[in-house]
């Protein structure tokens, strides 16, 4: 059965460009989507949030709202993928931790892990269908409502990044508390990282069973650890995730992307873990990545701040980016997410230029 026939009762696909790019197949132009394509920079997002008087996690936990928010950018822009509206912090919530999203500040854990004994407070048994059923329902609903227009991406935070928040209790530039805990309690940290890994594997498998057609794993805080700590506390778990998810799904396996922000020091290692796509942040060189990671599809990586430039600046930057990556084995994206004060019209220029210029490059 091909992707263009009905899949498990879902509508047939009209655009599978991103899936083909991820699998290393030929594409007629570069597919494009952007991290945080749903969000506060869109007036329709702010309106829906206000109308429903909904805080962030209420929107995430209400499948109809999560579905609508996922579809908003797809209606506005010619994107090649949707990403389910959710958050990486739903896993700590499933483990019994309280997480609040404070506007202007970000996530806050009122009762973070500070001592090894705090880990005993986490739920020993997690029934993912029960605790995160709303994510799976949102995925199934969205897959139906997308009507095969573009593939739907599911995602999870990686173990180290989730541990960062669970210990630090809030966003941080350095995650000093998390790194201190790691170095003082390496054994306990390893056990916790393994527990998170097992949970993430099941969570991702269930997202695919619910209808997700591609998966992205976010290791957003690889930048606060160096090569040695990364190879000890991140890489082995990232490898287990891709291996076990693909093993469990067998012939239903979907392409998987790893985005390890700041892990410029480990692009080669990341490309050898089994992920189909390695996503680059904007500090990384496309040319160097092609050399050290020749076997994978690359995703990225315009500096999100580039979208503050003029329309002409954006067209210039996109062409430059496309010339460096080429149009094959490539998924165009930003190097990180959209900012709340970005102008949607600038994103439209980013996307349109990727369409037109990558088509022109292919004709040559
Ligand atoms: O459109 C999409 O990309 C899908 C939705 C999505 C969100 N968060 C929605 C969101 C995805 C894929 C995420 C992942 C996520 N969440 C990551 C990994 C990606 C990255 O940014 O590195 C991380 C680290 C988180 C944790 C998180 N959630 C933080 C640190 C914050 C606060 C920062 C901010 O942008 O305000 C959030 C909040 C969040 N997640 C918002 C959205 C739309 C803003 C919520 C609001 O205030 O309305």
Topology diagram in text:
Elements: H1 17-22, H2 43-51, H3 56-61, H4 63-76, E1 82-83, H5 90-94, E2 100-102, E3 106-108, H6 128-131, H7 133-145, E4 152-157, H8 159-168, H9 176-184, H10 186-210, E5 214-219, H11 227-233, H12 235-249, E6 256-260, H13 267-271, E7 277-279, H14 286-292, E8 297-302, H15 311-325, E9 330-334, H16 344-363
Parallel strand pairs: 1-4, 4-5, 5-6, 6-7, 7-8, 8-9
Antiparallel strand pairs: 2-3
Helix pairs in contact: 4-7, 7-10, 8-9, 8-10, 9-10, 10-12, 15-16
The protein binds coproporphyrinogen III.
The end-to-end distance, rounded to whole angstroms, is: 33 Å
- Kindly state the number of beta strands: 9
Instruction: Name the helicity range.
Output: 40-55%
Order of helices and strands: HHHHEHEEHHEHHHEHHEHEHEHEH
List segments where confidence is low: pLDDT < 50 over at least 5 consecutive residues.
1-5
Major sheet strand order: 1-4-5-6-7-8-9
Biggest sheet: strands, sense, closure?
7 strands, parallel
Give the amount of beta strand, in percent: 5-15%
Average of the residue pLDDT scores: 96
Overall spatial form: globular
Class by SSE composition: alpha/beta
Architecture overview:
A seven-stranded parallel β-sheet has the order 1-4-5-6-7-8-9. Strands 2-3 form a two-stranded antiparallel ribbon. β7 (277-279), α14 and β8 form a beta-alpha-beta unit. The longest helix is centred in the middle third of the chain and has 25 residues, at 186-210. It is globular and about 60 Å long. It is built from 16 helices and nine strands. Mean pLDDT is 96; it is low at 1-5. The chain has helices at residues 17-22, 43-51, 56-61, 63-76, 90-94, 128-131, 133-145, 159-168, 176-184, 186-210, 227-233, 235-249, 267-271, 286-292, 311-325, 344-363, and strands at residues 82-83, 100-102, 106-108, 152-157, 214-219, 256-260, 277-279, 297-302, 330-334. With 364 residues, it is α/β, with parallel strands linked by helices. Coproporphyrinogen III binds at residues 35-40, 56, 83, 85-89, 101, 103, 106-107, 155, 171, 218, 220, 261, 337.
